[in-house]
What we know:
By secondary structure, the chain is α+β, with helices and mostly antiparallel strands. The chain has a single domain (48-309), classed as 2-Layer Sandwich (Chloramphenicol Acetyltransferase). Helix content is 38%, strand content 23%. The protein is built from 10 helices and 9 strands. The strands form 2 sheets. It has a 6-stranded mixed beta sheet with strand order 2-9-8-7-5-6. It has a 3-stranded antiparallel beta sheet with strand order 1-4-3, with no helix packed on it.
Amino acid sequence: MHGLLPYIVILVMIWAAAHAKHSRPDGRMLAPHPYRSIMGHIMRTRNEAVVYFDVYLDAEPLERYLAEAQALFPVDITHCFVAAAFASLTENPSMNRFSSGHRLYERKDSTISFSMKRKQLDTEAKLATVKVRLETGDTLRTLCDRLNKEISIERSETKTYQDKEFNLMTALPRPLLRVGVTGLKTLDYYNLLPGRFIEHDPLYTSIFVANLGSLNMGAGFHHLYEWGNCPLFMMIGKIEERPMVVDGVVEARRTIHIRWSYDERIDDGLNARFGIDGVNRVLSDPFKYLGCLKDDGSDARPLDKVENDAA
């Protein structure tokens, strides 16, 4: 036993040092109210803490906007949702948090991931994901330029970082793959996962957006992955005519059904509602909040400064 004592002491010191590590490549640890700190220990996984929100949005302003914008630059409804989500994260920074290792972190930047078919309108085509970061001064148009480049790469024959990662992992025998996944989750728990791995993984992101409307499908509530640290999932359904109350009168309007899944541990439901309302406001008046329709660029609205106009 005495011969093992030095090794036990070393292991205890390593364990204590790992627990004491607060810094992460993608976030800064917060000191929340004790109630919220305890939540991370009571609700240990994202799906134990998930809350669902249901939204119906008038699609007519967005359709009118896209009819004008598409004549000027390549843009679609997914681009607009990603831009609106970035604008809302700017306005509501408490939504740009995540829970990891039973601690609460503020994300160092704003990133959004979204899924797409590698071949348009091909039901047999594989799904791919694109992850994009909000840059200082980004407008819808500059965001579209970067997104479209990423989409072109995903739809080409080029082997992406994710392709190489998936090919490597699936080549492993099942027991080794299970050990590998567990090992990566353990590194993440102790804030030891390399920043390069986090940077490329689409589930280490502020929000994940899935546009099922492009597949002519309705929106469903999506689970939150226990991999990565994404606390918000937005599902977009197809545009359909539905009854809506407009100025006290029931009218048939073209609407978009949006369903949110939200990790309650990052903030309370009221602030989550503010975040969702921020997305709705941008999409309900894209001419004001997105712009980019004038030749001189005078109406282009920086997505990282939308809070100045929110009132």
